[in-house]
Amino acid sequence: MPSRLIVSRQLADLFRLLAHADRLRLIEDLRGGEKDVTGIAQSLGLPSTRVSQHLALLRAHRLVEERRDGRNHYYRLARPDLAGWVLGALPFIDIRQQLEDAAHIDTARALWGEAD
Fold first, then answer.
1. Does residue 77 form part of some domain?
2. DSSP character at residue 90
3. 7 in a domain, yes or no?
4. For residue 64, what pLDDT is reported?
5. Helices vs. strands in the chain: H and E counts, helices first
6. Number of domains in the chain
């Protein structure tokens, strides 16, 4: 029983970490491969400082890895299948009733599926 408790707590910590729209978008963006902060910021339309903060948190939890090339820092998913795992959660959200145009979820699924 204690091992189930430990695992459930670790999963809850992971879910809390992923419970931010910017971090989910960042994970999706890194699914296509390695990028630097500026590239991620431009791709997501976020300030570089905000992207850096999210990357630091994801790196601290070993979900993202960093590679340095001189002054440049490049980031990639430590486990690329994480993005697919997140995509697998789409059927569990009941967004189709909340959106007038249910195509949003289909568009997201198609975009996330492109990087396979």
1. yes
2. G
3. no
4. 97
5. 6, 3
6. 1
Task: Report the sign of the C-alpha dihedral through residues 18, 24, 28, 34, in that order.
Answer: negative
Of 40, 12, 25, the C-alpha closest to 83 is 25
Q: List the domain range (segments joined by +) for residue 79.
A: 20-113
Q: Do 46 and 55 contact (CB within 8 A), yes or no?
A: no
User: Where would I find the beta strands (DSSP E) of the chain?
Assistant: 35-36, 64-69, 72-77
Q: Is residue 9 part of a domain?
A: no
Q: How many residues does the chain have?
A: 116
Query: What is the residue whose two structure tokens read 């339309």?
Result: 45
The overall average pLDDT reported for the chain is 87
Span 88-98, average pLDDT: 70
**73 domain-assigned:** yes
Q: What CATH number does residue 52 fall under?
A: 1.10.10.10
- pLDDT tens digits for 17-68? 999 999 999 999 999 899 999 999 999 999 999 999 999 999 999 999 999 9
